[in-house]
From TrEMBL:
Organism ancestry: Eukaryota, Viridiplantae, Streptophyta, Embryophyta, Tracheophyta
Native source species: Rhynchospora breviuscula
Protein's UniProt name: Retrotransposon Copia-like N-terminal domain-containing protein
PANTHER family (UniProt xref): CCHC-TYPE DOMAIN-CONTAINING PROTEIN, OS01G0909600 PROTEIN
Signal peptide: none
InterPro entries for the chain: Copia-like_N
């Protein structure tokens, strides 16, 4: 009897329980635990997943994410313990993600296995062309700079290993040919500036990467659209520049008119202009003086006080301001109509 009690006490020290043919361990229950030192950020799935495997394996909880420890029936006396452990694994996984990533998956899964598979489907797919494209660019741009040789080599090996996950070695000729064309597409798309980012993302995020010919045709259609459908901000800049140039031309015209008036006035005042002021030209070196208004610059017979009809008439400034704007608006409307006409002709061909 004493031997049995001793055996029972020894077994009770082992923190494990059987669950319908499976096994789970009642160990660490720290809900604030993080499984990895570097959280999942959307670009490090492979290294993150490997670290999670190691951590959960060491805690006896790996069966919750690999499917080898399915839940017991809800009527089983062990269900509550399994559920408690599973929720603990979910909390650990969420703790090991960036806050932005955690918010994506917080309400997306009921079990640790569901959460693990959801994360894998988002970040671990082998046909993740956008990530492959990003990796190839990163590898091509990595420089040693001030890094030590160990740091430099470690950074490259990390990228190479992730790339090998997406592009595992193969001897299949069709796969090799497809990857060669994909490399051409990646290099082709990398040459476009940020204004093509939207269409580039659409191509790379396709479930199946289209052929190079299809990609080139898509880019060609985009260029055609840009030629005939100018963005609003560019059109507005063109319109403003057009109005500015038009207004500047009108100002030059008005300046010429004012110059003519001024020259005529100088003729009126000093007799140096042509026409009616020639007969009252003063003697050389003397400035005309009006003994009526006691002002220099004109003679008595050209004084505006005595002869108001000689004063030049001023134009209405509001009309002068509005006229070039209205004319420019009419010209812009004509240009837009012509552009729309050309676009309709293009669509009908």
């Amino acid at each position: 009897m004493a031997g049995r009690d001793k055996e029972k006490d020894t077994n009770s020290e082992v923190p494990e329980q059987l669950v319908d043919g499976g096994r789970f361990y009642v160990g660490d229950t720290n809900t604030a635990l993080k499984l990895t030192s570097v959280p999942l950020n959307g670009h490090n799935y492979l290294s993150w997943a490997k670290a999670v495997h190691i951590s959960l394996g060491g805690k006896g909880k790996l069966g919750h994410i690999n499917g080898k420890l399915p839940p017991p029936p809800e009527t089983s006396p062990n269900f509550e313990q399994w559920q408690s452990d599973d929720l603990l694994v979910i909390k650990w996984l969420l703790n090991s993600m960036d806050p932005e990533i955690e918010n994506i998956f917080l309400l997306s899964a009921d079990t640790a296995l569901d959460l693990w598979q959801t994360v894998h489907n988002m970040y671990g797919q082998e046909n993740n062309h956008a990530r492959i494209y990003e990796l190839k660019l990163e590898i091509a741009q990595i420089k040693k700079d001030n890094k030590s040789n160990t740091e430099y080599l470690g950074l490259l090996k990390t990228k190479w290993q992730e790339l090998a996950f997406y592009l595992p070695p193969t001897t299949d000729l069709k796969i090799i040919q497809a990857r060669t064309e994909q490399d051409c597409i990646y290099q082709y798309l990398s040459g476009f500036d940020s204004s093509y980012e939207q269409i580039r993302s659409q191509i790379l995020n396709s479930a199946e990467l289209p052929s190079l010919a299809t990609v080139a045709a898509t880019i060609q259609r985009e260029e055609t659209r840009r030629r005939f459908m100018t963005p609003d901000n560019q059109q507005q800049s063109e319109n403003q520049a057009f109005i500015s140039n038009w207004t500047r031309g009108e100002q030059f015209t008005k300046q010429g008119e004012q110059s003519n008036i001024h020259q005529g006035s100088r003729g009126f005042f000093g007799g140096r202009g042509r026409g009616r002021g020639r007969g009252n030209r003063p003697t050389a070196g003397k400035t005309p003086y009006c003994d009526h208004c006691d002002k220099a610059g004109h003679s008595r017979d050209r004084c505006w006080d005595l002869f108001p009809h000689l004063k030049p008439q001023r134009r209405d400034r509001s009309d002068e301001r509005d006229r070039p704007q209205a004319q420019a608006a009419a010209m812009i409307q004509g240009r837009l109509s012509l552009r729309w006409h050309n676009f309709n002709r293009f669509c009908s061909t």
